[in-house]
Each structure stands twice: as C-alpha cells, then as structure tokens.
Amino acid sequence: MTATGVAASAPLRALVLAGGRSTRMGRDKAAIDHAGSTQLERAVALLQPLAESVHVSVRAEQRADPLRSRFPQIVDAGNIEGPAAGIRAAQRHDPRAAWLVVACDLPLLDERTLQHLISRRDPSKSATAYRSRHDGLPEPLCAIYEPAAGERLETSLHAGRTCPRKFLLNSDTLLLDPLSPEALDNVNTPDELAAARDRAALAPQEIRVQYFALLREQAGRRDETLLTRARTPAELFGELATRHRFTLKPDMLKVAVNSEFRDWSHPLKNGDAVVFIPPVAGG
Amino acid sequence: MSRFRFSHTAIDIAPLREELMHPSCGGFASFEGWVRDLNEGQEVRRLEYEAFEQLGITEGEKIIAEACERFGVSHVLCVHRVGDLALKEIAVWVGAAAPHRDEAFRACRYIIDEVKHRVPIWKKEHYVSGDSGWVNCERCATHAQEPEHDATHAHGHAHR
Q: Do A256 and B52 touch (CB under 8 A)?
C-alpha cells in the first residue's frame, strides 16, 4: 500500500475511536445518522479499502451495544480515560502493525484526506499526522501510529500523560498540511453537528485559481483547480492561505472572479476562475 | 484593439506615436517609464514585470476612457512591458494627443498615476547584491503587524 523509504513498512490496520462518552453532544456520537448511515458505519466504510483490517475501539461496557458489536472490537486497556487508551489497546492487540487511528466524529472526513495521509506516511517516523488548521498542532485522531510509537505511548500513559496531541508533539511525527481544511473538524455539540451537516450538504465546486507574483512563488504554481466547499473568495483564500502559507493578508489583496474585480463575499459558482491580486507595482 | 496593451518585447514608440497623429490634434504629450539602477537605496540589476493581462487590459482601457472624459483628449495609448527588462529599457509608455497641449499633459499624468495604482502588474527587482523582491509585497508581508507601518510606501496597493 505504501512504499516510502527502503525499509519494509509495517502493515496498516485501522482503528475507529468510538469509546467517547459524547457528554456535550447529549447522545452517542457513533450512532448519529449522517447521510443515511451512522457516523461509525461511515468511518468504517471509508477505512475498509485502505487498511488490512478495521477495528472499533470501545469501552468494556460498550461491547454489547448493537451498533458496535457488528464490527471487530478492541476494548480499552485498564483504567485510562480518553482516546489514548484506545490507541494503546490497539497497539497491544497487534504491536507489529501501524495503526491508522480515526475518530468517529469527523463528518467531513473524506477518502482523499485518508489516502493522502497513507501515501505520505513515513514509516521511519513515530507517526504521520495532519497539522491542525486551527493551531498548527498535530491532529491525533486522524493519524498513523507506527509500531515504534507503542512503547513510547505506554511510557507516557504510565507517567499520567494521556493527551495524544501532546504525545505526537513530543514524538518524531511527520506533519502534513490538510488537503481540505474542514475534513478534520470534529463535532462535539449539537450546534457543531448542525453546522457540519450544512457544510456536508454543500456540494464541492470546481474552482480554478490563478496565481501571480509573490502568491505564484509561494504556491509554487501558476494555477490549480480545486474541489472546494468555499462559497466566497474570503473562504477560499482562508483555505489556500493555510495550505500554501501565504504571507500576504487578505486586506492587502484584491479579488477577481472571471477576470472582473469582485468583493470578498462575492458568491462563487461551479467553474469560476479566481485570482487574488497582490499589491500592484506597474510603471 | 484596446488602447491599453501589454508588450512582451521592447516597446517601439515610433509606430505608437504615428497611431495617435490626427489633424484635429495640435498637442501631443508622452511619458516613458524607464528601468532605473537604484530603488530605495538598493542597486537594481534588472527587473521582471508580470501581469494579469486579461483584467489588466480592461482596467487600463477604463483608465483611458476616464482620461478622455475628464480632459477631452481624443487620441490616447498606453503600453506596458512584461517579462525581463534590463536597465534603461522602457517599462511603460503613455501618449496623449489633443487639440491643445494642456489636455494632453494632464491626460498623460492621470493615466500613468492610475495605471501604477490600479492595473494588475507586479514588479520584481533583482538587486546587485543578489537579493530580489516583489515591490510593495515583501515589505507589507513582513511588516504587516507593525502599527507604525510607513504609510507613504503603501500606495502601490490596489485599494481604490
């Protein structure tokens, strides 16, 4: 599946984290219906073609739950709370495997995001993960944990350090820029769920972006065609600025859509061509 | 053909001047912008101009139409270079012909000022020191957070 580096990489198994208590949501997040299937079923279906096996992480008392009992389960180890317990239990289940760990509450997670993570995986690192679009820190719940991460996680848990984000931050983690900024946004509350559903209901549109001058150099290309849910130039620039690390802020730029100057809030249509115009210097 | 044009090769001014000649015009003024060897204390070796030509032509044509409307000039052209330019080359040429000299001078001045601020053209300077930079972009990007940011250099921004 992946052929990064010379060393043979460990086989890839997938783990869907579905042991959370869904306290803020007020109901079981794994069972939330999303486009005709539950979030748990959706996550399993996304992972099935990408990994040798897909397992569902559960707490001991969730084992008999009808939704969770349909899948191979891995029960959380001991008395540790939180996602690290599930990750560690999977590593114990098969210490020689690399584990692609995915939370079940990422309604906008797409196949492309998972495929990119797998294709860019570096088995010589402890882990491969995406950089959060919010704070630049590693996203621990859509990440690949190599076998080498197993013992280190064990040590951390023994020392009471149970935050998987901090674990990745302090490990030799390969960090990737997300392809689609919202793919890794999890939903914890009914409001967040409603917003994600609105987002998911928006069909991605094909937008062509042309770059000039400093933006062209920073993007490393003259143009690109994107599938995006961005509905305004402002949203689109937000996505692109993260991906390409643009140094120019929106208030220094102007926008053209289909070769006409437009507002940042101009509605984007499928097939539009967008140009962000850096400060000009003719003459 | 639009009265605002881009040229990927050296600007040949004789045919442009010829194009503007008309029996109703008694005055002609032109402006040429040349590549200079010094900018803001840095020795410049060569320049690179890049343009979003499609939008540049419509915006440039709009500026020329404004000049015709305001100053009563009838025959106007503006050509801007793109690509790599050596020192002393012509970067931009503006020509305006009118019944009398005053309108021609004023139209010329208006057009070059507006073109510099509004037409999507970018200039990269390559310095003798080996450095290079996009004029009006790099300093803005690095100094964007500074509150006492020098406002006098910022007018290349297309903020009109």
A: yes
The Cα–Cα gap between A111 and A14 comes to 14
A138 and A101 in a common domain? yes
Query: How many domains does the structure of chain A reveal?
Result: 2
Contact B123 A248 (CB under 8 A): no
Residue range of the domain that includes B126: 4-156
The range of the structural domain enclosing residue A64 comes to 12-196
The DSSP line for B60-88 is HHHHHHHHHHHH---EEEEEEE-EEEETT
Subunit contact B49:A260, Cβ cutoff 8 A: no
Residue of B nearest to A247 (CA): B141
Q: Which of A196, A214, A231 is the last residue of a domain?
A: A196
Rg of the Cα trace of chain A?
Answer: 21
Reported ipTM: 0.85
Interface of A with B in 172-211 (CB under 8 A): 210
Nearest chain A residue (CA) to B31: A283
Say if the Cβ atoms of B134 and A248 lie within 8 Å. no
CATH number at residue B123: 3.90.1170.40
Domain count for chain B:
1
Query: Phi and psi dihedrals of A99, rounded to 5?
Result: -110, 120
| pTM of the predicted model as reported, rounded to 2 decimal places | 0.70
Q: In the A/B pair of chains, how many CB contacts fall below 8 A?
A: 97
pLDDT digits (tens, 9 = 90+) for B41-93: 899 999 999 999 999 999 999 999 999 999 999 899 999 999 999 999 999 99
Q: How far apart are CA A270 and CA A252, in angstroms?
A: 26
CB-side neighbour CA atoms (13 Å) of A109: 30
